[in-house]
Automatic annotation (TrEMBL):
Gene Ontology molecular function: NAD binding; precorrin-2 dehydrogenase activity; sirohydrochlorin ferrochelatase activity; uroporphyrin-III C-methyltransferase activity
Protein name as it appears in the record: Uroporphyrinogen-III C-methyltransferase
Keyword presence, NAD: yes
Residues in Tetrapyrrole methylase domain copies: 163-374
The species this protein was found in: Planotetraspora thailandica
Gene Ontology biological process: cobalamin biosynthetic process; methylation; siroheme biosynthetic process
Amino acid sequence: MAPYLLGLRLDGRRVLVVGGGRVAQRRIPALLEAGASVTLVSPSTTPALDDLIADGRVTWERRPYQVGDCDGAWLVHACTSSREANTAIAAEAEAKRIWCVRADDKDASAAWTPASGRVDEIGVAVTAGGDPRRAAGIRDAVVEALRDGTVDARRHRTKPVGVALVGGGPGDPGLITVRGRQLLAQADVVVADRLAPRALLDELPPDVELIDAAKIPYGRALAQDKINELLIEHARQGKFVVRLKGGDSFVFGRGGEEMIACAKAGIPVTVVPGLTSAVAVPASAGVPVTHRGVSQEFHVISVHVAPDDPRSTVDWEALARSRGTLVLLMGVERIERLAQTLIRDGRSPETPVMVVQDGTLPTQRAVTATLSTVAERVTAAGIRPPAIVIVGDVVRVGQEIEMVRAERVP
Ligand code: SAH
């Protein structure tokens, strides 16, 4: 017979869990999330359960099960390692007409726990004829589809309002956050930057208004005012606006300015952090920005103005003196001045450098050189923006990793 699925509202109700092992550890957090008042009966527990007990979230009776424990409970979980004990617990619950879930024997269990998940206010519960792995697999698929918008739940949820500044990650559409993707799936209007992951925009439903911020025909400063206006204007019309950027909105992304403008206009703004290219692109090229014994620090620098430009506020001498990794954004057009400055200020001309174009995208390519040869290499290879320049011995670590991998990993 198929089970009857039900959502139990456990707030303030007593739930008994007998047995303090891995099964209890999996079940108890969901019970607590539903507000249940959980009593655990068990001679021992796991470290994760110990934490819940120490926090006063679970009442622990440190002893084996005894008849009468089920009194006053609305629900019982029998998850001891002893079949005999579980049988006795289930029998007591049955006699008292309390629902009991047995972890060891689905056929002898009065109730089953479905594989469950939550996306905002939507609860998903799946049973699969008593096959927990299959149920979990289906649950994962449904939860994922709700999260990434494959299952379009737009009409069924409370719609977000205002503006969301969403960091889209470095370019690969798989590298946006789950929350970013959720909000994107709910957008009425998307205002996208040049570096916002293209593939995410191609997936938007046709009724979503897409504004390409790179195509706004003004100078840089004016264009930003225009973008702020667009965000505010659409939000005022009651539309939910997603401002989608490459990487993280607050890393050379002018996210702060947009936030201030929206806040001044009384528009609610949500920030969804993104994976910045400053870390993700080196990683994607196999270079760890820190490595024990090699680099204890990494500096992220925008080179949108050249080192010798009077508008530059960067302390190049300090950077040249430091032994940390340098991650330079918007620098490939000025690579020659950049390398010369670092050498002049004290970095060895032999310092390894890697330049990565289109990181995390199918078109990703990289050149490796030293400070003295990098400008020439970049020109010869025709490397163009968007590209990231990585300076420091971690580049060598990346090469070492690649060598070992090529030799040993099939
Ligand atoms: N907010 C973004 C950075 C914006 S500045 C972030 O957090 O990633 C734009 C610069 O970022 C580009 O000129 C380039 O230096 C770098 N960049 C962004 N995406 C990149 C990618 N996929 N590959 C290489 N460089 C990238």
